[in-house]
Amino acid sequence: MCGAKKGGLDLKGVDVDKEAVIQGQVLRGEEPVGGAYVRLLDSSGEFTAEVPTSATGHFRFFAAPGSWTLRTLAPKADPVDRQVVAQYGAVAEVSVTV
Amino acid sequence: MSRESALVSADWVEEHKNDAGVVLIEVDEDVSAYDGGHIAGAIKLDWKDDLQDPVRRDFVNQEQFEALLSDRGVKNDDTVVLYGGNNNWFAAYAYWYFKLYGHGDARLLDGGRKRWELDSRELTDEVVKREATEYKAKAQDLNIRAFRDEVNDAIGVKNLVDVRSPDEYAGRLLAPAHLPQEQAQRAGHIPTAASIPWSKAANDDGTFRSDDELQKLYADAGVDFGKDTIAYCRIGERSAHTWFVLHEILGQANVKNYDGSWTEWGSLVGVPVALGDEPGKA
């Protein structure tokens, strides 16, 4: 996880000081995976939200500060869980490989 | 009702989607999803533009519903198979709506659009136009729709099930984070309501959990299956999903959806509101 701008979603219009943003990209090898499903689970494992990835494999959540799990479901792949910490003032960039 | 009569599998849809008398209908929260690709032959219903009155806060009436389905080419004796994104959230709402107006044979595609996509099944952007029909709707079946006075009388008497997220239930949020509009004046929940988020009824892939898991989910949260039940959420869509689980899959009698839900209750003068994670007292 890093602040990688390469391939990252544009943050224009997003106030990162007020939003605990979690975003990233789903990849199969080097290829982005569009139409995958990324689920945001809270620290107790409870479902909070879900988004499909864009054609470029990107996703974004506006979460609350704290620990979260991203569970990614993609065609022809096992679910992949990634732990992530969200906070105000910093964007949590997550690259998920299925 | 039962799981067998209310749900169909993706394999069933593959086998029967071209049958005369079977109509596939996609209903999504994201109303543009259909245009990007849908199951071959499926038509689309827009949960807002097609199903909500454009002026008053209410549904389209019986005549408007007849005109809508006639225009879209649905017949009274068709088997209507509904599916959509977000664990069939809005498809379940449309299912409830079809039942409200007395449609005979309606089903949900188990897992909806998500399971279909995860299975890498085919989607098409081919435009579908069905021949117009003369659909006849029945008067609303108020055995499955609750209004505010009935909800007020149900406090401490019937099961009330709040299917919103825990933070909305407790009053820490007024709406899901990605849906900021349509808010009530006050946050919280209806006293005595059990908190059972709708999403707990679905597996990760959007299919419904097993009957045993579902029974346990509601029983453990305090639902007394010997009593009548009213489910609510914020605007009545998520609670239609829970209505489907209780009434159609588990076959519970006397389950109603309160579609006024929190946006109505949380703006009413003179009704009780509970805050925090506990149900509160009648």
What is the residue-mean pLDDT of chain A, rounded to a whole number?
Answer: 86
Number of domains of chain B: 2
Q: How would a textbook summarize the main sheet of chain A?
A: 4 strands, mixed
Q: List the helices and strands of chain A in order.
A: EEEEEEEE
CATH architecture of the largest domain in chain B: 3-Layer(aba) Sandwich
Instruction: Please give the count of helices of chain A.
Output: 0
Overall pLDDT of chain B, averaged? 94
Largest interface chains and counts: A-B, 17 and 18 residues
Please give the order of strands in the largest beta sheet of chain B: 1-5-4-2-3
Organism (chain A): Kribbella capetownensis
Pfam families (chain A): DUF1416
Protein name (chain A): DUF1416 domain-containing protein
Organism (chain B): Kribbella capetownensis
Quick recap:
The complex is a heterodimer of chains A (98) and B (282). Chain A has no helices and eight strands.
List keywords for this structure.
heterodimer, A: 98 residues, mainly beta, Immunoglobulin-like, four-stranded antiparallel beta sheet, 8 strands, 0% helix, globular, disordered N terminus, B: 282 residues, alpha/beta, Oxidized Rhodanese, domain 1, four-stranded parallel beta sheet, repeat (chain B)
